[in-house]
């Protein structure tokens, strides 16, 4: 019988708690749910008002992995949803606004992916993101070098950048912006990616062409397009180990000399939150948002 838990006055079914989801460490679904419950205070503000794309991996990373963007069948009526414009027409998507909704969504076993705009202001981006993706044999170490260059370049335009691991092999840079549609943010991000390639031609590539990427860092500026989503801060990733897209300090970025230094797993996050708080909290303050030049 599926256990039923009451969360903030809502009944939430939590199933298959002993099922191993991340096979390399034997990390179970029960542990996954515990991770999200204990990280909710940091995670929920980054999900708030943003339509969620679920990258589901209910049988672990070696099973079927698939995106679910529309409201899943059987979604409780107390889960907030919103109509969102998509290229193929309007769709209804989930907004994870509270702990009960987070636990319901976590029971689906999913990565959380969100756009750079909110459901209530879809025509104005409030985030700028760079996805730094290393091409083998480059690693996150090289991503950190590129991130530091981009940080200084953004600062020259009055924009403060913050970093998090992708939870896979790369690094994400984020900044709060205001007053621009996604098209303009994408254009600006591409301009900076091209500048980075000109400044570090042996290190950076701004084009997606895979044959250009070995040994370099692909600065993916296209994640700013309105139709794109990026792994939400603190989401677990569909990997053999329960790795997390974890915020990091600039001291950690600048001091990274081996990839293992910036690998964070579920059990690492609570101590980091205790030590640092949410390193991405400034992104949630409208006062930090800066207009693009």
**Number of E strands:** 17
Mean pLDDT: 96
Largest sheet: 7 strands, mixed
**Global outline:** globular
What is the C-alpha radius of gyration, as a whole number of Å?
19 Å
Helices, by number, come to 6
Task: Give, in order, the helices and strands.
Answer: EEEEHEEEEHEEHEEHEEEEHHE
Can you give the helix content as a percent range?
25-40%
Low-confidence stretches: none
First-residue to last-residue Cα separation: 58 Å
Strand content: 15-25%
- Judged by helices, strands and strand pairing, the structural class is alpha+beta
- Which quaternary structure do these chains form? single chain
What do you see in this structure?
With 293 residues, this protein is an alpha+beta fold. It has six helices and 17 strands. The chain has helices at residues 29-47, 99-106, 140-156, 182-199, 250-254, 266-276, and strands at 4-7, 10-13, 20-22, 27-28, 51-56, 66-68, 81-84, 91-95, 110-114, 125-134, 162-165, 171-180, 204-205, 217-220, 230-231, 247-248, 290-291. The strands form four sheets. Strands 10, 11, 12, 13, 14, 16 and 17 form a seven-stranded mixed beta sheet that branches. Strands 5, 6, 7, 8, 9 and 15 form a six-stranded antiparallel beta sheet that branches. The protein is globular.
Features:
6 helices; alpha+beta; seven-stranded mixed beta sheet; 293 residues
């Amino acid at each position: 019988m599926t256990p039923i838990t009451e969360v903030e006055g809502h009944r939430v079914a939590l199933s298959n708690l002993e099922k191993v989801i991340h096979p390399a460490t034997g990390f179970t679904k029960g542990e996954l749910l515990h991770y999200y419950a204990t990280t909710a205070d940091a995670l929920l503000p980054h999900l708030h008002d943003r339509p969620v794309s679920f990258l589901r991996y209910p049988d672990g990373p070696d099973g079927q992995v698939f995106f679910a963007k529309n409201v899943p069948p059987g979604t409780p009526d107390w889960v907030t949803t919103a109509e969102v414009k998509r290229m193929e027409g309007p769709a209804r998507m989930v907004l994870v606004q509270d702990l009960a909704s987070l636990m319901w969504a976590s029971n689906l076993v999913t990565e959380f992916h969100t756009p750079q705009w909110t459901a209530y202001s879809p025509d104005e981006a409030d985030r700028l993101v760079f996805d730094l993706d290393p091409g083998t044999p480059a690693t996150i170490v090289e991503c950190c070098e590129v991130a530091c260059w981009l940080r200084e370049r953004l600062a020259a335009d009055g924009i403060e950048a913050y970093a998090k691991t992708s939870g896979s092999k790369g690094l994400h840079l984020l900044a709060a912006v205001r007053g621009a549609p996604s098209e303009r943010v994408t254009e600006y991000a591409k301009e900076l990616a091209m500048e980075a390639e000109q400044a570090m031609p042996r290190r950076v590539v701004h084009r997606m062409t895979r044959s250009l990427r070995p040994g370099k860092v692909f600065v993916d500026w296209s994640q700013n397009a309105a139709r794109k989503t990026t792994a939400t801060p603190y989401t677990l990733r569909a990997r053999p180990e329960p790795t997390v897209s974890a915020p990091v300090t600039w001291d950690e970025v600048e001091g990274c000399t081996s990839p293992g230094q910036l690998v964070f797993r579920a059990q690492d996050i609570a101590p980091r939150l205790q030590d640092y708080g949410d390193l991405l909290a400034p992104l949630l303050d409208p006062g930090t948002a800066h207009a693009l030049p």
